[in-house]
Amino acid sequence: MVMATLTSMHRPGLAILVNSDDPFNAKTAVGVLRYGRDPIVALVDPERAGQTAADIYGVRPDVPVVAGVRDLPPDAGRLLVGIASRGGQLPDEMRSEILAAIDCGMDVLNGLHTFLDEDPLLAEAAARKGVHLIDLRRVPKDLPVGLGLPHRAGSHVVLTVGSDCNVGKMSVSLELDRAARERGLSSTFIATGQTGIMIAGGGIAVDRVISDFMAGAIEQLVVPAAEEYDWVWVEGQGSLVHPGYSGVTMGLLHGTAPELMVLCHQPTRTSIRRYDDVPIPPLGEVRRIYEEAARWRATSRVAAVALNTFDLDEGAARAAIARAEDETELPADDVVRFGPAKLVDALTGRTGDE
Asked: Taking the CB of residue 148, how many other CB atoms lie within 10 A of it?
């Protein structure tokens, strides 16, 4: 399992390999920079060497950017492929840096659909150097078909759902979990994608699971978590209105069988990213779609809206939040920019003064 592999690794210092200043393409890097638990020594990006992570992505001014793996400091023991390319393919230009990392004795972690340990050249080099190639999207082989198992009475499973891909579903789940724990609630985060797995140390990349077993895969994570914790925050994937990735969203929705959902949206986005001719429906309609689809498996409702306003100034961001509340008649906020308290209040039925 990925969890056992990650937690058993003791090599120091994480470096992240990137090739883009687009936070959507580099979302694995950005997610780990913001939420990762391991010390990060540098980004590797030849086009932006000499800058810092904050110069490129707005987070972590303490993380420098170097031109190549051989420019990393001595405490760099692991290299993470930090991109989320369309289709999950490994860019050719990254192979030489991965080989350099292996030659330097570094373990390599990879969240793409291209598995490093199936590449003969990389696998042979890793075996020769005695280092690990960790493919975060590799899933167990013994996954069951979904059984429709119930959650423990008194537990609350909350799934983040989206109007599109790359709108912040993982970040919202992590922020809400952190805030719930800070309030003393029994709470945990369930990772369902490669970046979340890297942050949490375990989980299942559901977009790699054969469709017949997708609901069973997430059920195996959610049902035991709901036995142990009162609040289970599940990282969403894709979107029901996405032409390419709606399938993973439906499987995850029915396997999770959430009591509550948080609808995530980027207000400046009017069409599906990379599908300019596919408009995003109004938020009220997106809410209805998710609640209807969820009810085919179990009663659920969207309880709050989480906006990603990174590309708006503060005034425009607050105006977008107000519009979302008017449109959906639900509490809305940007939990990364303005904090998660408002949405945690809405979801838990508590107030910040309690």
From this structure: 13
